[in-house]
Task: inverse folding
């Protein structure tokens, strides 16, 4: 390929990258109502909760920290979609959205498997956000907290 053609391709690529910046997805952090939160419905030790918020909160809460690159298309589209999917799956700030309790309970029962075997948070997120990596102690605290639900699928004893 000659230099003139390479120059035209690069100019077209730069122009394309500039134009797609116009199409930004809606990024939001809806207000959190404490009475709808996970903590309002399920007792959770502070160490497990703080580890979950630090490691999972950007996608599974209404308190997403939107880094600078989340405003740069096309990366912004992927990040916003990941956050929206994470909130739909399980939102610590809108626990009531999971409905009758069985779905919410299933999410908690499986949280240990998600962090140990499925790779939550995802590798791509952990790669960029090193502070999101759970230590063995934090994973153990989360699993120890969620483990009683396996023996009692209807929920924590004595808790609605």
Result:
């Amino acid at each position: 390929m000659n230099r003139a053609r390479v120059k035209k391709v690069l100019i077209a690529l730069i122009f394309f990258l500039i134009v797609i910046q116009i199409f930004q997805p809606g990024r939001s952090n809806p207000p959190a109502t404490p009475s709808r939160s996970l903590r309002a419905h399920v007792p959770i030790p502070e160490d497990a909760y703080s580890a979950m918020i630090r490691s999972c909160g950007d996608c599974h809460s209404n308190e997403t920290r939107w880094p600078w690159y989340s405003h740069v298309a096309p990366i912004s589209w992927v990040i916003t979609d990941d956050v929206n999917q994470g909130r739909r799956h399980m939102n610590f700030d809108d626990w009531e959205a999971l409905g009758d309790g069985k779905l919410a309970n299933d999410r908690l029962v499986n949280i240990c498997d998600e962090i140990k075997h499925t790779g939550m948070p995802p590798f791509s997120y952990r790669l960029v956000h090193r502070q999101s990596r759970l230590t063995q102690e934090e994973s153990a605290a989360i699993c120890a907290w969620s483990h009683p639900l396996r023996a009692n699928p209807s929920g924590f004893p004595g808790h609605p």
